[in-house]
Amino acid sequence: MATRRKILFLITKGTWGGAQRYVYDLATHLPQGTYEPVVAMGEGSSLAQKLSEVGVRTIGIPSLKETRIAGPQMSDFRAFADLIRLLLDERPDIVHVNSSRVALFGVLALRGSKWYTFFLTHIARRPSSSKKTYTPKILYTIHGWPFKEPRHLIITGIIWCASYLTALLSDALIAVSRHDYTLATYMPGITHKVTHIPNGIDAITLLERNEARKSLTKTPAPDERLWIGTIGELTPNKGYRFLIEAMADIPPSVILCIIGSGAEYKSLTAYAEQLRVSSRILFVPALPNASQYLRAFDIFAFPSVKEGLPYALLEAGASGRAVVASAILGNKEIISNPSLGVLVPPQDATKLAQALRKLADNAELRTSLGTRLADHVRATFTFDAMLTKTLALYTTLV
User: CA 20 to 30 Å from 176, out of 122, 271, 306, 355?
Assistant: First the structure.
C-alpha cells in the first residue's frame, strides 16, 4: 500500500473567513488514499471546530497572531520557533501556506528547520530523528497581495519586499485572482512558479426569504421592508464604514443587515449611532453557514477595500442576489460586465448610496442582475475545477 503524502496547511487565523473557507474546502476534499491533511492555525477556533467535525486533525499555534503593524513583534519570534518545531515534528511532504503573515513565517521556518537539523547532526553531533534528508515543498496561495492595502508608501515598500521574499522562497504559488497572478509575473524569478486557480464553490443551500429573515431578527413574523445585506469579518478591509455612511442617504424604510464578527464591531456600531442610522442596521454575529441566509437580502452590498477573489461575493452571486460592489480588481473578476452587477468606486459612500438607491427603486433590475450573475458564477467558478487544478499542482510537487 502506497504511503500517503502529508499536506500541512498553515493559516494565521482560525476564525472563519475566505482564506479559512479555502483551507477547509481543500483539506476536506483531498483523496483519502493519497493525502493526509493536517491544519495548523493561530488564534480563533471556528476553523478547528469545523475541521474536527469531519475528522481532519488540527494543531493550534497560540503564538501566531495577526497584526496590521509592519515589522517584527515579540510574538513573531515565538511563532517562528514554534513553526520550526512543528515542521520537524510533523515532517509534511507539502507545506501549503495561506495568508501573507504565516506564509513568510512558514518559508523562513522551513529554511530554519533545515539549518537547525544541520546544526544538531553535523556540529553539535547530537542524535536526532531529523538526520534523514527532509525537503518538503512549499506552496503559497495568494489570497490578495498584502501590499495592495492602502498604507504609507514606505510601509507598502517593506510589505512588497516581504511578499517578494516569500514568493522567492516558495516552490510554487497559486493566485486566486487574475490580477494577483499578473502582479506575481512582474516579480523577477517568480513567473515560472505561479499558477492562476480561481476560487470555486459548490451549490449552496438557501433558506427561503421569510424563514431567513425570521431567523436573523429572532421574531415570529418576517420583516417586509427592503433589505440590504452583507456577510464578512468586521475588519477595515471590508469597507463597512462606507456602507454605514451610505445608509444616511438611503430612505428610512430600507434595512441594512451585517452578518459577521470582528475587531471593528464597537467602532462600527458607534459610527452608526453617530450618523443616527443605528435603528436601521441589524448587526448579527458571525453564523455557521451564513450563506444560507442570503435570500433574506434584496440587495447584497460588498464595499471592500481589498480582496483576492471573495467567496462571499461568489456565494451572493450564486444565490441570485443583485449585487453592488466596490470596483476593486478581485470583485471586477466576478462582476466582469455591467449586466452582472453594479460596481462603484471604493471608499466612496456617496456613489455607494446612489447605486443602492437605484436598485432599491427597481425590482425588475434587481431580478435581471441577480439572474445573470447566478448563471455566470455557477458556470465559471466551480469547486470541481478548483480542486482538480490544485491536486494536479500537488502532484508536480511530490
Answer: 355
